[in-house]
Amino acid sequence: EVVRCLHLLLLNRYKFKSSKRIRSHSVQEILDNEYAEIRVDTRIKTDVKIRNNRPDIFILDKKKNKITLIEVGITSQDSLQIVETEKLRKYDLLANELGLIYKCSVEIIPYVMTWDGIVTKYHKSHLKRLEIPMNVEAYIQSIVLKKTVETISFDRRRGLDVILGAEMHEEPTPPLKEAKRDEDGVKTENKKNNTPHISQGGATLEEPTNNINEESDLEEETLVVKEVEENI
């Protein structure tokens, strides 16, 4: 969006036919007329192979015999100064080579701000060299802020959707103690079911399983038998 705004400004300055409204403006990679040649995000051919040869905007002012390389950057406040310096030095080799090829002066101008529109103390001088009116600068800052808000809102919505989706599909996990108790219950049940059978008189009987109540009954029966024997 920032490149598109700067591109439209340059087209009007160098008398290219263009849309008067930024929203309907489409960026073309290469434009050329009697006043200037403007390239956007295209590789600049040189006699020597140079790695950084694709500036955001390349302007050859034919009347002034001057080349301007513009590098746009939107970054965080912590990285603002670093990014601006990197953009300024990134095309030093390309600028030297272009000066030899075209036999003209070459300048590199960074256009850097944060996601919330903050700039460095050098930004004002960059604006002056680019001849950007303050109303255009204010419009660009508003676009950057709007895009930032839209991005944050989208990320929050997407994060909320992920959280809600996870909660809807999440299966309840039993507590560790309950799970252990269930597991022990299965083992006990299996153990009972696996008790051997005793055949008696053609009928199959399960081996009796002793429990507290059964043991009490047995003791009572024994006492009764003893009393009967003593009486006899």
Automatic annotation (TrEMBL):
It comes from the Eukaryota. Residues 169-192, 223-232 have a biased composition (Basic and acidic residues). It comes from Hamiltosporidium tvaerminnensis. Residues 169-232 are annotated as: Disordered. This is Reverse transcriptase. PANTHER family: REVERSE TRANSCRIPTASE DOMAIN-CONTAINING PROTEIN. Residues 193-213 have a biased composition (Polar residues).
